[in-house]
Amino acid sequence: MDLIERVNGHFLESIAAKQETMEQLSPAVAAAAERMVACLMNEGKILACGNGGSAADAQHFAAEMVGRFEKERPGLAALSLATDSSALTAIGNDYDFDMVFSKQVRALGHTNDLLLAISTSGNSANVIEAIYAAHERGMGVIALTGKDGGKIGEILSADDIQLNVPVSRTARIQEVHILLIHALCDAIDYMLLGGE
């Protein structure tokens, strides 16, 4: 296989992953966006967390909410739990890395809030602990996962929403996660601002 064919393979695989996810998850994405708008309209905030690329996605989502997505609007209350290096390192050092998000959820989360939990495997221990903490605080959870949904799929409550990308390759899951985040941002803006 030459290099161009290899590159083309990435595009084709990504397109297939997005097509399959669209067919399976579009209603759940719409429901998740409705939950997010209800949270925001009820004076709640969205706390987002994840590791590595998923941490970047959590930060990306929060930036789109607080700043703007594609339309001008007032900022919306969202916070990435993956960006405070002092909190992350203090909690990781003084307690355990598995607690870096859950300690923040317990400190910052309230009943009207939502947790956006992102894990490509569905098995990230610190994201799982954050979900437990969110449930303790009476928060709802929207989980972006991949593969078979992992342990996260098993611990979500009936009121939570799992957006599980039904593919096994991490790169493809991450690509679909950012598309899901953009779809959520667009749906939120559409519900709040109207439009085409």
What layout of secondary structure does this protein have?
Elements: H1 3-41, E1 46-49, H2 53-66, E2 78-80, H3 85-94, H4 102-108, E3 114-118, H5 125-136, E4 140-146, H6 150-155, E5 161-165, H7 170-193
Parallel strand pairs: 1-2, 1-3, 3-4, 4-5
Q: How would you explain this protein's 3D organization?
A:
Helix 6 links the parallel strand 4 (140-146) and strand 5 (161-165). The chain has a five-stranded parallel β-sheet with strand order 2-1-3-4-5, with helices on both faces. The model has no long low-confidence stretch (mean pLDDT 97). The chain is α/β, with parallel strands linked by helices and 196 residues long. It has seven helices and five strands; from the N terminus they run H-E-H-E-H-H-E-H-E-H-E-H.
Shape: globular
Indicate the mean pLDDT: 97
CATH homolog superfamily: Glucose-6-phosphate isomerase like protein, domain 1
> In DSSP terms, counting alpha (H) and pi (I) runs of 4 or more, how many helices?
7
Q: Tell me the strand order in the biggest sheet.
A: 2-1-3-4-5
Function: Catalyzes the isomerization of sedoheptulose 7-phosphate in D-glycero-D-manno-heptose 7-phosphate.
GO molecular function, one term: carbohydrate derivative binding
Pathway: Carbohydrate biosynthesis; D-glycero-D-manno-heptose 7-phosphate biosynthesis; D-glycero-alpha-D-manno-heptose 7-phosphate and D-glycero-beta-D-manno-heptose 7-phosphate from sedoheptulose 7-phosphate: step 1/1
GO biological process, one term: D-glycero-D-manno-heptose 7-phosphate biosynthetic process
